[in-house]
Amino acid sequence: MTDKKTIPSPCNDLCYSVDGVCQGCGMTDEEANSWHRRNDDERQKIIDRLVAAGKAPAKK
């Protein structure tokens, strides 16, 4: 597992949660609230899930 945290958050500052899922970026509330504690392996899994769901992370 990687300890570095270099993958940026997919948050696009359009935060609006419905049923525990942000309508702006697609992360669950738990994923968004714990992003800063996750390592890059965990972050990449979230990014992969978002891409597969058609919620590609915003480019900043």
Brief digest:
With 60 residues, the protein is mostly helical. The protein has helices spanning 29-34, 40-52, and strands at 17-18, 21-22.
Structural account:
The protein has 60 residues and is mainly α. The chain has one domain (1-60). It has 2 helices and 2 strands. The protein has helices spanning 29-34, 40-52, and strands spanning 17-18, 21-22. The protein has a two-stranded antiparallel ribbon with strand order 1-2. Strand 1 (17-18) and strand 2 (21-22) form a beta hairpin. The longest helix has 13 residues, at 40-52. The chain starts with 16 loop residues before the first strand and ends in an 8-residue tail after the last helix. The model has no long low-confidence stretch (mean pLDDT 89).
Secondary structure: elements and pairs:
Blueprint: E1 17-18, E2 21-22, H1 29-34, H2 40-52
Antiparallel strand pairs: 1-2
Question: How is the biggest beta sheet arranged?
Answer: 2 strands, antiparallel
Helix content range: 25-40%
Portion in strands: 5-15%
- The mean pLDDT is 89
> What count of structural domains?
1
Q: Span between N and C termini?
A: 26 Å
| Overall shape | globular
Main-sheet strand order equals 1-2
Q: Which structural class matches the secondary elements?
A: mainly alpha
Succession of helices and strands: EEHH
Instruction: Provide the gyration radius in Å.
Output: 11 Å
Question: How many runs of DSSP E, i.e. beta strands?
Answer: 2
Query: What count of helical segments does DSSP give?
Result: 2
User: Regions with pLDDT < 50 over 5+ consecutive residues?
Assistant: none
